[in-house]
Sequence to fold (135 residues):
Amino acid sequence: MIYLLFQKQGFAYGRVPGKEAYFWGMALASWASWQVSSLAGILLASVFPASWGLELAGTLALIPIMVSAVANRSTLAAVAVAGIVSLIAFDLPYRLALPIAVLAALAAGCAADFFVERADWRRIRTETVHEKDIE
Fold:
């Protein structure tokens, strides 16, 4: 994961001042957070009933990945709608809550993108009209 984030930064090839420090800073921060969260998990394990099992651990492990993936408003809308729909549809048979939540998230993300784009076009049109008035 750290390597992918490092590559995403787009450093030039070869020797670049600060490139190694950036990588090691990310690596040490990741290692430290892993150690702290592991200790917290060990210490807080007795708080949760054993009947919850690994399902809870898997869900808790995916939450930070999901939060870090929220990059803009449309992604936030998709995540929020998916969470709400999955909670509402939880008791549906055949585990239909998951595909319904995914479809609702896709629809919410597309709708948010559409409205943001529409607002941008409206702003551009308004600016163009004002520029013509000035001329």
